[in-house]
Amino acid sequence: xxxxxxxxxxxxxVPHSLDVPLRGKAQGPLAGLNFTVKDLFAIEGHKRSNGNxxxxxxxxxxxxxxxxIRRLLDxxxxxxxxxICDEFFYSLLGTNAHYGNPENPNxxxxxxxxxxxxxxxxxxxxxxxxxxxxxxxxxVRIPAxxxxxxxxxxxxxxxALEGATLLAPSYxxxxxxxxxxxxxxxxxxxxxxxxxxxxxxxxxxxxxDLFAAADPWIEEASxxxxxxxxxxxxxxxxxxxxSDEIETWREAFRIVQGGEIQNTVLTVIxxxxxxxxxxxxxxxxxxxxxxxxxxxxxxxxxxEARIRMTELCTPGTLIALPTxxxxxxxxxxxxxxxxxxxxxxxxxxTCPAGHAGLPQISLPLGExxxxxxxxxxxxxxxxxxxxxxxxxxxxxxxx
Length: 399
Hints:
It is a single chain. The protein is 37% helix and 15% strand. The protein has 399 residues and is an alpha/beta fold. The protein has a single domain (34-398), classed as Amidase signature (AS) enzymes, CATH 3.90.1300.10. Helix 8 crosses helix 10 and helix 8 packs across helix 12. The radius of gyration is 19 Å and the shape is globular. The termini are far apart. The relative contact order is 0.15.
């Protein structure tokens, strides 16, 4: 394990973070703001580790900078650090055996959540104004909930991922962390591409089955947050999102994701004979063993989940659910059998939006047992801007 840079109070940065910030343009809508990036984006002249020290040692410096980073620099923001992530992004826990675990400044003694753990920690610790990361199975949404931040996963494909290491491309999205909803909307609007589907939020569906599946203190804190937003949100309508089928949706996510991993980072891991930490290693072994027939079954389930979510999330319709079913894990937790149940439960809350490619924002509006609790809103495809604008109004209402 290697120590992080000294100007890092929560161990959020990789040892190979920037020695000198990359300054944004003097003029622009983001001038004067700082940001950090997850250690999977290309930065010209720098190497990325993807959370693995052996990969970093063998890698060559990137010759270009990811367009998403270049855009932020052109808009005036300065890049100040590169953040720790779970090894090859294949975890939701927030640990890294090579570089150490980022601390959660808003839940001492607990992990920040993964895989974008360092990015979330850097924003929560006020080391920067916002952070750029990625979300495949919840890697922005879960750390946002655990660290008390706004966390945004866009409609799939609406923020370009060129120059980023991909894990499961049909689920991979860029993502953002901020402490403020207005800043989230400002940054995201500069990055969003493609079709915008404009509609005023007019219907609010409450996923009762997922509220009931969360730990009691999570359910209570999320429900209380919803009550506090009653004057801004449409009248709530209780629904059953998936019931017992949610376990099948989660299993389909695991298999489709694993099948795609066979053609992305797994090829590099095997070619370079990279050392993987326990828990991560077993997960990649599992992915490698997935068969074409399993993938075909899982794709069928994914199609069913996508149809269900798309039918519910018509323009103007939102779905509310707790972002995560649990509190942050203790900082003594290790990725493996002891956290398998945590991972499975968490994926049941994150896979619905992932299967359908829908935008989701985690709002830091709850608290339980001295820990942040996130309330999530899932929007309709292309409704990112409406979701972001609503988050601004909700922050103002919640105070």
